[in-house]
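Hi Y.,

Following your request, here is the sequence exactly as I used it, all 430 residues.
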Amino acid sequence: MSASLPQGLIDYLGQSPSPFHATASLARLLESQGYVRLLERDSWQLKRGGRYFVTRNDSSLIAWQMGQSEPSESGLRMVGAHTDSPCLKVKPNPELLQQGYWQLGVEVYGGVLLAPWFDRDLSLAGRVTFRKDGAIDSRLVDFQRPIAVIPNLAIHLNREANDSQSINKQTDLPPLLACVSGAEAPDFRSLLAERIEQEHGLTVDQVLDYEMNFYDTQAAAVIGLENDFIAGARLDNLLSCYAGAQALQDAAEAGQWAVLICTDHEEVGSSSHCGADGPMLEQVLRRVLGDDESFTRTMQRSILISADNAHGIHPNYPDRHDNNHGPRLNQGPVIKINHNQRYASTSETSGLFRQLCLEAEVPVQSFVVRSDMACGSTIGPITSSQVGVRTVDIGVPTFAMHSIRELAGSQDLGFLVKVLSHFYRQEQLP
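Below is the corresponding structure, written out as tokens. Let me know if you'd prefer a different format.
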């Protein structure tokens, strides 16, 4: 594995504290590789061999390389991931003044592991919509430095904290921003207006609305005695977005039909105009492929690799896994299987991925959830049912998924990029 690969992921994570920033970072990377940004509201003039991408809602992105062959004969090599991660989002009227402190009301987004959010150095990032000179505009903002914290209650005041502790999402989570003195009430929108001026040099007339989330300012890092691990926020699933973009770049010279899909809102079901359960992918592909017959024939020859992190077997909690399906960090990507269609893998698509791993000399593992536990899901089944493409669900094994700081194997990133690059190079799909 290239030594620059983990550092590239660490840099990408640092540039991507929100889905909007993650998409903007991907867009910059693609443009540096010669991809042309298209606007969905414009007419497209596509050329064979061209490389293009579109974004929607500033938080979802689809990039593709036009192959020289007929797509209805060769199919599309597609990799899918998602740009969002569980977090705490600021409410519309968030100002809370309690006991002389300024706090912000937050809404829990997705299946957040809440306890690790306490006592962390937090900042804010997202998108702000405002009015300036009578026109409506939006900008991305990132406070970057620590501006908030959710302090724990001292154990002296909560003697049962280490035995059993429930977290009330309404009352226990408002982050603390500042001490308040005097009669003037803090205004969050004014704070955002000041930040827009600092970041973008714009003096806005009024902040109309925003989508802002808190995030941990501690940078991702390669850790462990032998540098075995990557620790950081939003590894689920920005690791897969980054790996997909790297693989697309690595396989560019092959000239095959290749697609990268990174959509928002997976953590809350994907039902949005820019989510996997929305029309974005089908609308883009129909514009690229042409008439209904060409679209259907192409989809029937295509393969989607849905790349989303898997649960590695935890050494402290091995009983939470099926005995025969405990993926280990740094032992390669994991094929995720669920016969109740929480994952879209079939014997055919799983077999294809195993073959790709064999050819790329990448180890491969399997995951099946315990039969007495509920199974999560991915964009795989959703995308497969939306456009009718054969799909395999895979991902790198991870600890502490949905925590504020997750853990993955440093070698697994290289394994994933290698097998995805090999997939993008395939001349013919089965």
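The chain has two domains: 4-85+233-424, 87-216.

Thanks again,
Q.
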